[in-house]
């Protein structure tokens, strides 16, 4: 027997039915609108002119999200598991700040509340269930996480050394007023961001900076190489999804006829 | 019987004959000249000095393009299909603005007209028919379009979070006057563009910015990895699917005539 | 018989036992603290307020490092080999500057001493023994070192030519006051750092700069390509060199026990 | 019989003997010194102080280069072939400007002469004969030259469109005074150089710029992908250097036993 509850479950938690898809898309639009709203509210000129319109929209959206949150808790089989799951917390954080704003006072308090509301953006990630491409990228990044950590570690060491040398060369002037600031400059330069808020003025400093930048060429190649090698591996060797009916071993290459663990025929 | 029409068809629409090639190259030169003309016209000092020369050149080029457009409609078998095709619309947009300029008045109106004329640049893409390399790149990009979309999606989410945090840290000062502006800064930083029109001034802001930049290292590696993996797959030397009828060896290179394992002729 | 010396050896030089791991981690924390300390000391406002606290902490840390250094010399079998090894020198350099500071006077002298203390950061590299990923990256970089050198060589040549041309175009003005400064600009531009402290002002200069930047696109691809190709080679799943004794099939994965073509056992 | 001429030939043109290597290295040092000299001469403060020293050094170096050039012509078997070869012209251009400086007058004339002397830097490229790595990189770039051209072509088209849109958005203000300047901005942004000499000030402009930058992410991946794919191909498939003794075909795969063109056995 199909109860209202199980029908609602299908609509809210699954995306196979037509109503389920409509629900998903309209929720996405509301999320995007709510993010836009928070952004606009932070622009002083817009806030001044459309104060009441923004306030009302905010409460309408909070209402929709609250209703959705309550419904999810009511429908789901294990409410506790949902509430403390990543998306459960995000869903709660989407509505809480607006209610909190009734209590909190002070300019900075309001700013923090506003920012918290932007955590709604994580709700977009729910869309991930439509794509298996996302999981490929994430798996590639996860597989290369140790290599990337080692690399970032080396970069941090390098940046400390470079920043210190530059601090000595420029002699605490031209913006290089302390070692941390020298390190900030080294990060800005080595990552090729190059704001130009701090830049060397002495000839020796510019010479050293040139060496750092050219060195940065070779360095930027490393993470790219790591991720590319990982993604190439994933995308080239299509592994069979077959599991050996005899010994349950998986990870057979796609052209295997016999199981490479126990020698029985795969079917 | 070869009519003038079919001869003209060969010249204008095909590039196999000598006259066809001459037509293509001279048209390319006219297109490049016309683009240069529009650009120069937008430079105030040049416009002031060579006003009449630029005006005359513009009408000469519009004349040539109009003639070409009319001829294409006259020659082609299915005029309607051509007119509403991508290149048909581009061809029309190449001449229309100049005629429109006779009617339109006002400074901003003129600027828009001038810009519209620059759409002629798309005509250059017709040259694509000479290259199969372009299609390889486009195919690689198309194959990885879902992965890239997922990635850009994640970047947008990240940029909103980073921009908001920075807005909170810098407290609405030093250029970080609103959340959208914080997001603009996050985009400028994460893509390693780094204008420096907005840059953090507080110590905490510079520390956070350093983390974002180093994180950007790992992030920029992802799209490169995606496209590279795709291009590697495409460009890996196409192996012949032939199997030697004598020794059953496979993996012959595509231009092999004899089996490289037993020396028998492949068929 | 296990002496105190051999037990200490296990703790200090090895990381297999529980005490050894605790020692490593606590040493890492001290190293990170000592680096943070040196950085903070270089910030004038912090130095002014917490002068005595920083001084005391510095001596405490120097004490710990001195003790560790002496213990290492005492414990190790070949003290000479340790003293003149890379890490031995780094360990000495971690403590020497603080003692030197008692003798050295003058502002610049103090700055150099402070910077020398930062060489402690290299001690972090000792952690490398935990990761085999680091060695993969280093091996890939070492394997491609000649290619990267050739590339950097070409970049230096290019940068000299571009810098000189720009110096001629801008005529020694707008910051391009000499050829070395033109070369500095070329490096900043070609590596896509782009500070903006020197940027072309003439139309011809901006046109030439545009060409250089677009050219930089193709150039930045080269080191990435080199490192990626090297890392892909290393990371491509190591295939077993085994050939099936029954059907002569090869290309088994390294952990195969049975042939995936005929099902016979591999030996 | 070994004449002086043939002995000199070995020293100057070959690098196998010990004297040949010494000659090469000392020539390299002189070349590097001569480049440094030209650079220093362009720095006003150094030129003012060391005017005579620089002048004398310049004539000494020109003397050495002149002697080398004359000797090369005298020794080589086909002087004409050498004189009109790439390196022959570079060798001549290394000495000519200094002699020309005796005739030429005027500040800008001197600047051009100085710049011409810097063409000596190309002499460094002679060192290439020591490395086969350089040829691998160059071959990879040459193989991908059509793909890169197509890509650069697309970038130029894109940059024209983006620059024009930005010119319209910012309305000819904030540095976007003409379409070419808008295009210059588009190049600076899309290549992630980001000087910041021109940057959008309107909200719409910053929004559009953000899109362009994020788009630039996907774009920068393309040339990297092209070159990497090419380098991976070159570095993975080791081709046999064998030439078929029967039909002279080459490009056999390394494990070939029989020629894949005529079927004869390779030895």
Describe this structure in words.
- The structure is a homotetramer of 267-residue chains.
- With 267 residues, chain A is mostly helical.
- Chain A folds into two domains: 4-128, Up-down Bundle (Four Helix Bundle (Hemerythrin (Met), subunit A)), CATH 1.20.120.350; 145-235, Helix Hairpins (Orthogonal Bundle).
- Helices cover 67% and strands 0% of the residues of chain A.
- Chain A has eleven helices and no strands.
- The first copy, chain A, has helices spanning 4-13, 18-41, 44-49, 51-75, 79-83, 86-100, 107-117, 133-143, 145-170, 179-190, 203-236.
- The longest helix of chain A has 34 residues, at 203-236.
- The two termini of chain A are 38 Å apart.
- The model of chain A is unreliable at 236-241 (pLDDT under 50).
- Chains A and C meet through helix 9, helix 10 and helix 11 of A and helix 2, helix 7, helix 8, helix 9 and helix 10 of C.
CATH homologous superfamily placement of the largest domain in chain A: Voltage-gated potassium channels. Chain C
Largest sheet of chain A: none
- Separation of termini of chain A? 38 Å
Work out the helicity level of chain A: 55-70%
CATH class membership of the largest domain in chain A: Mainly Alpha
Low-confidence stretches of chain A: 236-241
Query: Could you say which overall geometry of chain A the principal axes of the C-alpha atoms support?
Result: flat
Count of structural domains of chain A: 2
What is the chain-wise order of helices and strands of chain A? HHHHHHHHHHH
Please give the oligomerization state of what you see.
Answer: homotetramer
> What radius of gyration of chain A results from the CA coordinates?
27 Å
**Largest interface here, residues on each chain?**
A-C, 63 and 70 residues
Work out the strand percent of chain A.
under 5%
Question: Any guess at the CATH architecture of the largest domain in chain A?
Answer: Up-down Bundle
Coarse structural class of chain A: mainly alpha
What is the CATH topology assignment of the largest domain in chain A? Answer: Four Helix Bundle (Hemerythrin (Met), subunit A)
């Amino acid at each position: 027997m199909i109860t209202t509850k199980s029908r609602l479950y299908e609509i809210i938690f699954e995306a196979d039915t037509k109503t389920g898809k409509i629900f998903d898309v309209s929720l996405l639009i509301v999320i995007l609108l709510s993010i836009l709203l928070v952004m606009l509210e932070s622009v002083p000129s817009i806030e001044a002119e459309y104060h009441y319109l923004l306030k009302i929209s905010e409460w309408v959206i909070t209402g929709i999200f609250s209703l959705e949150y309550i419904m999810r808790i009511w429908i789901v089989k294990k409410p506790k598991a949902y509430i403390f799951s990543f998306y459960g917390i995000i869903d709660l954080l989407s509505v809480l700040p607006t209610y909190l704003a009734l209590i909190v006072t002070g300019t900075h308090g309001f700013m923090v509340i506003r920012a918290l509301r932007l955590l709604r953006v994580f709700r977009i990630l729910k869309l991930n269930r439509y794509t298996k491409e996302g999981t490929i990228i994430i798996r590639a990044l996860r597989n290369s996480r140790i290599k990337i950590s080692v690399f970032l570690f080396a970069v941090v060491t390098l940046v400390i050394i470079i920043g210190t040398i530059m601090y000595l060369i420029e002699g605490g002037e031209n913006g290089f007023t302390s070692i941390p600031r020298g390190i900030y400059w080294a990060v800005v330069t080595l990552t090729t961001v190059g704001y130009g808020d701090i830049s060397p003025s002495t000839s020796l400093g510019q010479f050293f900076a040139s060496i750092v930048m050219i060195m940065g060429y070779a360095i930027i190649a490393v993470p790219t190489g790591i991720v590319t090698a990982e993604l190439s591996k994933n995308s080239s060797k299509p592994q069979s999804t077959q599991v050996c009916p005899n010994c349950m071993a998986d990870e057979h290459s796609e052209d295997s006829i016999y199981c490479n663990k126990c020698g029985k025929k795969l079917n």
